[in-house]
Design goal:
This protein is an all-beta fold. It folds into three domains: 7-198, Jelly Rolls (Sandwich), CATH 2.60.120.200; 204-363, Jelly Rolls (Sandwich), CATH 2.60.120; 370-448, Immunoglobulins (Immunoglobulin-like), CATH 2.60.40.10. It contains one helix and 32 strands. The protein has one helix spanning 7-17; strands at 30-35, 46-52, 58-62, 66-72, 80-86, 98-107, 114-118, 135-137, 151-156, 160-161, 171-178, 188-198, 204-208, 218-221, 229-233, 236-242, 250-255, 259-261, 266-276, 283-287, 304-306, 319-320, 324-325, 331-342, 352-363, 370-375, 385-393, 400-404, 410-411, 417-419, 424-433, 439-448. The strands form six sheets. Strands 1, 3, 4, 6, 9, 10 and 12 form a seven-stranded antiparallel β-sheet that branches. Strand 15 and strand 16 form a beta hairpin. The protein is globular. The termini are far apart.
């Protein structure tokens, strides 16, 4: 039995489904993980298991509702028993109130899919997931977004409470069963936009999308003709520092309004970042004593630089960076600043850099400390001063640093320089210790070659 749709019906469906993927999940909470199936022919965070092989879960894309996964038992000639399960167990122990939401479309009659959770299922052992214990979780309200009977209308699932299961790791899956080919025995299911969010996150202190305005942030220009301003790049609004045409250089500040953080609270930051061209990256700075009425020059306030991996972004697109830990900074008037600096030159070497969706919030638990090493040159030679940079995040500030350059020398600076006398391969180790004594380490191998003398000697042959 094949489904045939008239052109008129297709137009009606198109009108209904055009914005399926553009619908936002109603929960405005912090996203823990999500799957939108944007990678072609990829189930993403999920894997599928077919117990009765007829029609399987599959990745699809069309002009109506974009990219999604579908299970279609409509018109089947036999029984379908198919699972779509998170490939890895979920560990949500750090979150107060995790909930699952997703979008769905159901059409034609038949049994509904079921959302199930299991704490004893193992992907590499059970060939039939039903051999283990699963609990069914309700995802719709009867009469409101009840999928029974079906329609091509996109629906939101209810918020599925995962709190009872968060004390241990567990799996979440969708289970589809269809009896056969008769009418009312096979629903077409399309699902998308799976999100697990913390529905009761710690308070959001500041959330600025920078879509149409910079306020409540303040812009200060200390040099050059350019300054932070709203702009539109790569299909997104944001606030941008662009000194790429300012031959006189730039020193521009984007400063947040003050937020209150008490000692012991964990402050985190999320942001989206855009970059193009080459040159120095912006700095993220934090201050507990900045007062705009006193400090007419923001440099005069006490500020600490927070490492943010801006330099790792090399694509001309928006990137959501991992959460940035500001744990250890506190005060009644804590402020964040982004500093855009470009040296004068002709031509000037400068990046276009943008920010959007900058959010400061209080987290439940700080990320564990981490460390990495950056080196100023890729071809170091003997007698040359090499500059190292300690990159630390997570844990609780302040950090202490311990360098071992592999030749018997060491340092405790954030940005040490070191000169190797002899050629060879050296293992450089960095150990970062946070205020609580938690440590993280990173290694970097450097190969030192002998510096060659580029002096040329002019030889004059005597006349014969």
């Amino acid at each position: 039995m094949k489904l045939r749709l008239s052109l008129k019906l297709l137009l009606v469906i198109a009108l209904v489904l055009t914005n399926f993927l553009s619908f936002e999940i109603r929960a405005s909470s912090m996203v823990i993980l999500e799957e939108t199936f944007e990678v072609e022919e990829d189930m993403g965070l999920f894997s599928q298991t077919s117990v009765s092989i007829n029609f399987n879960w599959r990745w699809l894309e069309n002009d109506f509702d974009g990219r999604f996964v579908e299970m279609n038992g409509f018109g089947a000639d036999g029984v379908s028993d198919d699972w779509l399960i998170f490939s890895e167990p979920l560990d949500l122990t750090k979150f107060a109130n995790p909930v699952l939401t997703f979008n769905y479309i159901a059409h034609f009659g038949g049994p509904n899919i079921e959302v199930k959770v299991s704490s004893d299922y193992e992907t590499n052992i059970q060939t039939n997931p039903a051999d283990m214990a699963w609990e069914v979780l309700s995802f719709f309200t009867e009469g409101e977004n009840d999928p029974e009977g079906g329609s091509w209308s996109p629906q939101f699932s209810n918020e599925i409470d995962l709190t009872p299961y968060k004390d241990t790791s567990f799996y979440v899956g969708l289970h589809y069963v269809s009896e056969g080919a008769e009418s009312g025995q096979g629903v077409v299911w399309r699902v998308d936009n799976f999100r697990i969010v913390n529905a009761d996150p710690a308070p959001i202190l500041l959330n600025t999308p920078f879509e149409e305005a910079i306020e409540p942030w303040v812009v200060m220009n200390l040099g050059g003709g350019e300054e932070w301003e709203n702009a539109f790049f790569d299909d997104r609004d944001g606030v941008f520092g662009d000194g790429s045409f300012a031959n006189d250089g730039s020193d521009d500040w984007l400063i947040s309004p003050p937020v209150a953080v008490t000692e012991g609270e964990v402050l985190l930051a999320n942001l989206d970042y855009y970059t193009d061209f080459s040159g120095p990256t912006i700095q993220m700075l934090v201050s507990s004593d900045y007062d705009p009425n006193v400090h007419t020059n923001p440099v005069d306030a006490t500020r600490s630089e927070v490492y943010v991996p801006f330099e790792t972004v090399d694509t001309i697109t928006w990137v959501t960076l991992p959460s940035i830990s500001l744990n250890g900074y506190f005060g009644e008037k804590l402020s964040i600043a982004f500093r855009y600096q470009v040296e004068a030159g002709n031509p000037v070497v400068a990046r276009v850099q943008g920010l959007a969706n900058v959010c400061l919030f209080k987290g439940i638990e700080a990320p564990a400390p981490s460390a990495s090493v950056a080196v100023s040159t890729t071809q170091p030679t003997t007698g040359e001063a090499i500059y190292f940079l300690a990159q630390a995040s997570g844990g609780r500030v302040p950090y202490t640093f311990a360098w071992d350059f592999g030749d018997g020398n060491d340092s405790d600076l954030v940005r040490p320089s070191h000169t190797y006398v002899n050629s060879g391969t050296y293992s450089v180790e960095l150990v970062v210790t946070d205020a609580d004594g938690l440590m993280a380490s990173a290694q970097q191998v450097v190969t030192i070659t002998i510096k060659t003398d580029d002096t040329y000697v002019r030889v004059v042959m005597p006349k014969s």
